[in-house]
Design brief:
Layout lengths: L3 H7 L4 H11 L4 H8 L3 H14 L5 H10 L6
């Protein structure tokens, strides 16, 4: 699961993308994350969708799990 292509993709998450996916992993909604980070809900969704694309997954939950497994974020 940790092939070189996967690791390469995960290493280019922006700090904001990492922050957003961390809060997703902690069970927060996009609205909640927006309040916490002081950004709009749409901006949170933009960052989460970028993470999903970069990690090649279809749901935010799987993106959060993958981010934890790859060591990108720590709960």
């Amino acid at each position: 699961m940790t092939d070189s292509a996967g690791i390469e993709k995960t290493s280019n998450l922006s700090p904001r993308e990492k922050e957003c996916i961390l809060w997703v992993a902690r069970g927060k909604s996009s609205w909640d994350i927006g309040i916490i980070l002081g950004i709009s809900e749409n901006t949170v969704n933009f960052h989460v969708k970028n993470v999903m694309r970069k990690l090649n997954v279809n749901t935010r939950t799987v993106a959060a799990i993958k981010a934890v497994n790859f060591g990108i974020i720590e709960l």
